[in-house]
Amino acid sequence: MTLLRVRGFDIHKGCLEPARQAALIEALRPVLKAAPLFSPVVPGGGQMSVRMTSAGKFGWYSDASGYRYAEAHPSGRPWPAIPDPVLEIWRQLTGLEREPECCLLNYYGEGARMGLHQDKDEADFSYPVVSISLGDDGLFRIGNRTRGGKTESVWLNSGDVVVMGGEARLMYHGVDRIRFKSSRLLPKGGRINLTLRVVT
Ligand SMILES: O=C(O)CCC(=O)C(=O)O
Ligand SMILES: [Fe+2]
């Protein structure tokens, strides 16, 4: 495991060994069953190429009227609890007493991407966002605190964990593309990214 620091983003390469990655996928199965993936509509009216769901008290949600945290899945059912092996990573890397209230699960299938954005729907930016990559490689792009300017990119591989805290907390970031089927963790291919967030 090596720590790479890019513009304040702490990138823990190879943080999770293969057995731990497989255990995480197992722990996520019941989450996906209770709260199936959906494709959010964005305020402009388009649909995200990433499919998503959440675990925790709050889930991230978007429709034509905007982005927000919601207390229920679009089905109307509450979000399932954040699995313990996921919380364990938060505790290990942040050392914080406070626990995340949202685990957003993004699934990137072939061709999916996520445009540059800031994570700013949370109330307190002094808490970091912890991002866990599983499955196919994803090209993560890091920008600045404001839109535009030079960016830097780094490939995130299965088992990498990024801590976005401090100066990085409000910096633009996104995923340009994935290398579909570069990993065998997910039988059908694709990339799962989990982001752990303190919301309120
Ligand atoms: O997929 C990733 O690595 C980043 C996801 C992300 O930035 C987000 O969900 O806000
Ligand atoms: Fe983000």
Structure description:
14% of the residues lie in helices and 36% in strands. The chain is built from two helices and 13 strands. The strands form three sheets. A seven-stranded antiparallel beta sheet has the order 1-2-11-8-13-6-3, with helices on one face. A four-stranded antiparallel beta sheet has the order 7-12-9-10, with no helix packed on it. Strands 4-5 form a two-stranded antiparallel sheet. The longest helix is centred in the N-terminal third of the chain and has 17 residues, at 18-34. It is globular and about 40 Å long. It starts with a strand and ends with a strand. Fe (ii) ion is lined by residues 117, 119, 173.
List keywords for this structure.
dioxygenase activity; Jelly Rolls; binds fe (ii) ion; 2 helices; 13 strands; single chain; mainly beta; binds 2-oxoglutaric acid; 200 residues; seven-stranded antiparallel beta sheet; AlkB-like_sf; four-stranded antiparallel beta sheet
